[in-house]
Amino acid sequence: MERANADPAVVAAKRTRLSEPHVAPLVALADRIAAAEGLDPGAVPYPDPSFGGVRARALVLLDNPGPRAKAGTGGSGLLSIENDDPTAARAHAAYAYLGIDVAQCLHWNVCPFPTVKDNSTAGERARAVRWTGELLRLLPALEAVVLLGRAAEDGWSRVRPRRPDLLVLVGPHPSNRGVNAAPGNAQLFGATMRALAEHLAEPPRATG
Question: CA-CA distance, 1 to 84, in Å (whole number)?
Fold first, then answer.
């Protein structure tokens, strides 16, 4: 079944919200990344404004922008579980089944700019470390980081944030290839997302 972002009208409506305070700083970050990489504005996908943006308690990190997240290639130009691809569909199903509130989450990539191949290289992830650092400084309510896939784990390990307060959860990438890479990966992905749901069911930590 087609995801919501397959409808150009839905995407257009979401894009009108990109100046809202909870998402505007992340849009600006995406544009800075694009400029640094010699790309046009919008080449680095923006966060879906239906999510928590800078108010997010949980950061879900994957590898790099998939085809359905890229603008100008038939994609939405948004990082969203509403994109029309298997990765987004599997993540959407987990959110729905576990009752995870998207307003408490933010999806991003350890390599936020488009990569040469389908998967990011170690060099690309190293180049992107500075951007993950900038992202973290924009998330004052952050409590948990979810690393989905080996590339996300590697990219996060390169950042080395001094944040012992963060809950770090690790699971397989929710793509077909990721969940089929080893027996039990589908169950492990489900367990990782369940741990996230359980954390977010608790009251937010006091800030300040």
Answer: 9
Q: Are 58 and 196 in contact (CB under 8 A)?
A: yes
- Tell me the C-alpha distance between 191 and 199, whole Å: 12
Distance CA 179, CA 185 (A): 5
Q: Chain centroid to CA 102: how far? A: 11
Ranges of H-type helices in the chain: 8-15, 24-36, 86-98, 122-127, 129-137, 150-159, 176-180, 185-200
Tens digits of residue pLDDT in 144-187: 999 999 999 999 999 988 889 999 999 999 999 999 888 999 99
CB atoms within 10 A of CB 133: 12
Contact 149, 178 (CB under 8 A): yes
Radius of gyration of the chain (CA): 16
Residues 178 and 26: their CA atoms lie apart, in Å, by 27
What is each CA distance from 129 to 7, 69, 109, 155, 186, in whole angstroms? Answer: 33, 21, 11, 7, 28
CA dist 149 and 119 (Å) reads: 11
Q: What is the pLDDT of residue 4?
A: 84
- Token pair of 156, please? 């996060």
Q: How many residues does the chain have?
A: 208
CB atoms within 10 A of CB 165: 8
